[in-house]
Amino acid sequence: LATTVDQAESTRVRTDGIVRNYVVTRFGNREIVSVTHLEVKAWVAELVASGLAPRTVCKVGHVLGQIMAAAVDGGVIANDPTTRVKLPNGSTHEPRFLTAGQVIDLADAIDERYRALIMVAGFGGFRFSALAGLLVERWLFFAEATHISTIYYGR
């Protein structure tokens, strides 16, 4: 994956960690041509059975798939052994949402300086990354609504 140039630095770091911690520990001493489809399926099943989060198993499987696709593109192997290997979906449970009363109870129970954050998160439906980037000076408060005109992402 050293030839991948369209990834952010954080993605490259995560990919390197996956390769080092999962792919190399399982397939590192082998020639890439010796890895079989059934072996990849068994490995994915072992990752799931080990208790790894489904999203982690998906990321690990996708990284191995990228490696194998690059090997096919480079003429090292004829077929990608990760093709048609089913990966778990990213979620194993239904998302849980707070009721309006629970949001208000939470906002009342915590330190006063976090009350607005809880109310905006609970009733606005923002993800944490968006909340973390909010700039208070860019909020426009109206009687019935709040408009957030700028979210700072640090770039």
Structure at a glance:
50% of the residues lie in helices and 4% in strands. The chain has helices at 9-27, 37-49, 54-73, 100-109, 115-124, 128-132; strands at 139-141, 146-148.
Task: Characterise this structure.
The structure is a single chain. It is elongated and about 60 Å long. Helix 1 (9-27) crosses helix 3 and helix 4 runs antiparallel to helix 5 (115-124). With 155 residues, it is mainly alpha-helical. The mean pLDDT is 84. Helices cover 50% and strands 4% of the residues. It has helices at 9-27, 37-49, 54-73, 100-109, 115-124, 128-132, and strands at 139-141, 146-148. It is built from 6 helices and 2 strands; from the N terminus they run ααααααββ. The longest helix is centred in the middle third of the chain and has 20 residues, at 54-73. A two-stranded antiparallel sheet has the order 1-2.
